Amino acid sequence: MTRSISILGATGSVGLQTLDLIRRNRAEWRVEALTANCSVKELAALVREFGAAIAVVGDESCHAELRQELGGTGIATAAGRSALIEAAQRPVDMTIAAIVGCAGLAPVMAAIERGGTVALANKEALVSAGDVMTAAVERHGATLLPVDSEHNAIFQCLAGNAIEDVRTITLTASGGPLRTWSAERLEVATPAEAVAHPNWDMGAKISVDSATMMNKGLEFIEAHYLFPVGLDALKIVVHPQSVIHSMVEYRDGSTLAQLGPPDMRVPIASCLAYPRRMDTPCSPLDLAAIGELTFEAPDEARFPATRLAREALQAGGIAPAALNAANEVAVAAFLGGKIAFTKIAVVVEDVLAAGNLSHQAKSLEEVLAADEAARSLAGQMVGKHAIG
Ligand code: NAD
Ligand code: MG
């Protein structure tokens, strides 16, 4: 039976890897909406190839070019934030949420409010909205499937078990490309060095997050909302080979781990086929060739981001949303050459210390307001820590 799918953030790393799997199973899928921010040529090529019903760009200034690219094809086009939300509201069997950053939050909420199945890669949306999102999932009977490899691993390790029987959940972290760098050398890490991930091929923002370990910090918060076992039961271990994607320890002493090649098509496929399995072209895991799997404790002196994320979660209220917003602003400033690599965590810490973050957001609007406020504060902190 054919199933329908929309991909929010279709031109990105996760979006393209999802489409790669769909391309190999074309008869099984009907593509409804594909969206991008402003990668018009890439988006136009994809909607033509997959015969999508509608193409949407988030940036309105890119609409004219999109219309021109798709003229005469019969494929509808739209642009702007509300158009992204409308695209996410179109009825489909599955929505892939693969926009980067809090920019994806309102569309994800729209897909959830439709009560559909949402495969979530866009961790910033869940980190920002927290309970507002999980409550909406409950209220609207939506199904949230985790695409993030760690959370997908945990989801798989929890299958058939009761969450009450979990003793700990351990998120594995590759440690990123700068894992072995000294504190002094980290000061002068360049954007090119920070995005050169040893195991995964990802978008620029998450690659920098991986280098600062903020990716694991965001994932710690993401795990808290997806698998509420209590903060003390959530652990992080550095595992440079990225073969074990995370683990669940049960109260009888059994630990279940999910292993796989470091290829996002594996967790994406597990969402696409859920609750069944599907073929992927990913290379099989060859443990003898890998030889050894190693583990080390995270070093929060050189990489403070996981501490900041834990503190934001402990502080509660809108602190996680502020942490995420500050990080987005700081990462963009680092990629733009405005601040040093090590100042990313400093900007985040400054925003957490300066903001009044104790109130609980009750709605999407309140989350977005918290995000906005933290962004503007982070902009000031970037100015304070600017290079030169
Ligand atoms: P990417 O930068 O490669 O792609 C982002 C996509 O979102 C693109 O299609 C882009 O056009 C769109 N986009 C960007 N800004 C937008 C905006 N303001 N409005 C509308 N659309 C916008 O990012 P990615 O690496 O594919 O990551 C996407 C999400 O998945 C992130 O939240 C990331 O943390 C998460 N994730 C990615 C990976 C990975 O391997 N890439 C793994 C796990 C989780
Ligand atoms: Mg991950």
Automatic annotation (TrEMBL):
Entry-linked SUPFAM superfamilies: 1-deoxy-D-xylulose-5-phosphate reductoisomerase, C-terminal domain (SSF69055), Glyceraldehyde-3-phosphate dehydrogenase-like, C-terminal domain (SSF55347), NAD(P)-binding Rossmann-fold domains (SSF51735)
Binding site for 1-deoxy-D-xylulose 5-phosphate: K123, S149, E150, S174, H197, S210, N215, K216, E219
Function field: Catalyzes the NADPH-dependent rearrangement and reduction of 1-deoxy-D-xylulose-5-phosphate (DXP) to 2-C-methyl-D-erythritol 4-phosphate (MEP).
UniProt-listed Enzyme Commission number(s): 1.1.1.267
Limits of the 1-deoxy-D-xylulose 5-phosphate reductoisomerase N-terminal domain: 5-130
Similarity comment: family membership: Belongs to the DXR family.
Organism name: Qipengyuania atrilutea
Gene that specifies this protein: dxr
NCBIfam families from the UniProt entry: Dxr, PRK12464.1
GO BP, one annotated term: isopentenyl diphosphate biosynthetic process, methylerythritol 4-phosphate pathway involved in terpenoid biosynthetic process
Catalytic activity: 2-C-methyl-D-erythritol 4-phosphate + NADP(+) = 1-deoxy-D-xylulose 5-phosphate + NADPH + H(+)
Lineage, highest ranks first: Bacteria, Pseudomonadati, Pseudomonadota, Alphaproteobacteria, Sphingomonadales
Binding residues for Mn(2+): D148, E150, E219
Protein name as annotated: 1-deoxy-D-xylulose 5-phosphate reductoisomerase
EC main group: oxidoreductase
MF GO annotations: 1-deoxy-D-xylulose-5-phosphate reductoisomerase activity; isomerase activity; manganese ion binding; NADPH binding
Annotated 1-deoxy-D-xylulose 5-phosphate reductoisomerase C-terminal domain residues: 144-227
